[in-house]
Amino acid sequence: MKKSFTLIELLVVLAIIGILAAMIIASLSGARSRARDATRKSDLRQVKTALEQYYSDKEKYPVQTTSVNLSTLSSDISTYISKIPEDPQGTYKYQYISDAEGTKYALSSTLENTKDPSYNVTCQGFTFATDYHYMTCND
Q1: Does the first or last residue of the chain, that is N or C, have fewer Cβ atoms within 10 Å of its Cβ?
Q2: What pTM was estimated for this model as a whole?
Q3: Does residue 85 fall inside a structural domain?
Q4: Distance of CA 12 to the CA centre of its chain
Q5: 72: CATH
Q6: Spatial separation of the C-alpha atoms in residues 65 and 44, rounded to whole Å
Q7: Residue 114 lies inside a defined structural domain of this protein
Q8: How far apart are CA 129 and CA 101, in angstroms?
Q9: Cα-flanking dihedrals φ and ψ of residue 124, to 5°?
Q10: Is residue 63 part of a domain?
Q11: How many CB atoms lie within 10 A of CB 122?
Q12: Side-by-side strand order, sheet with 95-98
């Protein structure tokens, strides 16, 4: 007598494989958003370095008393950074704001991962739109 798998056994195996595949896809989605958030933070660190070099030469930061897209600063800091970074998803724009004297500034981006320890970090004295959850400022 031949032994073979029953239809129910095959369906159970397929269901288990489907559940495992769904769990893997869900975890990869979280990893991708964390990777994009890491890219955003890295991009802002690069811009921060360029702004510090700008300050070293000009003794002030570019003055923008209302928040603007980072691309607005390209003429100011192009000497210090080869390319103004853009959000990895392209959905949001990096933001910049300074005080009127050019002594303080803040950079902002949105983060996808709400459990990130940097989520909702702010810089004293600066505000951005509500969908920008991450800020870094001059120290």
Answers
A1: N
A2: 0.78
A3: yes
A4: 41
A5: 3.30.700
A6: 19
A7: yes
A8: 22
A9: -60, 130
A10: yes
A11: 15
A12: 68-69, 95-98, 105-109, 134-137
Residue span of the structural domain in which 98 resides: 7-137
- Angstrom CA distances, 49 to 8, 34, 38, 117, stand at 62, 23, 17, 22
| CA proximity to 110, closest of 37, 39, 49 | 37
The pLDDT tens digits along the chain (139 residues) read 677 888 898 999 999 999 999 988 877 778 888 899 999 999 999 999 999 999 999 999 999 998 899 888 888 898 999 999 999 988 888 999 999 999 999 999 989 888 888 888 888 888 777 778 888 888 7
DSSP state letters, 79-119: TT-SS----SSSSS--EEEE-TTSS-EEEEE--S-TTSTTT
Instruction: Please tell me the distance from the alpha carbon of residue 98 to that of residue 107, in angstroms, as a whole number.
Output: 9
Q: How many domains does the chain have?
A: 1
